[in-house]
Automatic annotation (TrEMBL):
Signal peptide: 1-17
Biological processes annotated in GO: dopaminergic neuron differentiation; neuron projection development
Chain ranges of the Saposin B-type domain: 21-115
Gene Ontology CC annotations of this record: endoplasmic reticulum; extracellular space
One Pfam family, short name: ARMET_C
Cross-referenced InterPro entries: ARMET-like, ARMET_C, ARMET_N, SAP_dom_sf, SaposinB_dom
Stated name of the protein: Mesencephalic astrocyte-derived neurotrophic factor homolog
Family stated for the protein in its record: Belongs to the ARMET family.
UniProt xrefs under Gene3D superfamilies: SAP domain (1.10.720.30), Saposin-like (1.10.225.10)
Location(s), subcellular: Secreted
Species of provenance: Macrostomum lignano
UniProt keywords, alphabetically: Disulfide bond, Secreted, Signal
Length: 177
């Protein structure tokens, strides 16, 4: 019984006691900050206006931001609705970290969202990247490597398309050679 209580306490502390910051709850904190900065002064103290503004803000969200909106209830397709749990503290002027702590208490998946790491094309060694990462680069550019079976083929195509999609990085790479 004692072991069960200790285990329960540790799990509870880990789940609800962890501090929320840019690293532990990256998408939530950054998205809430951007949302707070986008609010007009007239809406800042009114929960209803904040809720409506959040739903409008979510309409333009993409990727992990869109997933965050889905979890909170800012999208029409959302299964849950905890927008008021976001709107109330925002209306009080609470910092994004504290808002995300409150949201995490309602839905722990909110802090599981992480942004994908961006690649510095001017310094990256393409041969060190995984094929999955090379495919993701091409996908982000809207390109597909048809018939590619070897890693070297993906690398060749990424290097070939680099000047088209990342001209500054391509120029820096040429200057280094």
């Amino acid at each position: 019984m004692r072991l069960f209580l200790v285990t329960f306490f540790l799990c509870f502390t880990y789940t609800f006691g962890a501090k929320v910051n840019d690293e532990t709850c990256e998408v939530c904190v950054k998205f809430v900050r951007r949302f707070e900065n986008s609010l007009e002064d007239a809406a800042k103290g009114n929960m209803d206006k904040i809720s409506d503004a959040f739903k409008k803000f979510c309409l333009t969200a993409k990727g992990k931001d869109e997933r965050f909106c889905y979890y909170v209830g800012g999208l029409k397709t959302s299964a849950t609705y905890i927008v008021n749990e976001l709107a109330k503290p925002v209306s009080w002027g609470m910092p994004a970290e504290k808002v995300c702590e409150k949201l995490k208490a309602k839905d722990s998946q909110i802090c599981d969202l992480k942004y994908e790491k961006s690649v510095d094309f001017s310094t990256v060694k393409f041969d060190k990247l995984k094929v999955k990462e090379l495919k993701k680069i091409l996908e982000n550019w809207g390109e597909v490597c048809r018939g590619c079976t070897e890693k070297s083929e993906f690398i060749r195509l990424v290097k070939e398309l680099l000047p088209k999609y990342e001209p500054e990085a391509a120029k820096k790479r040429k200057d280094e050679l």
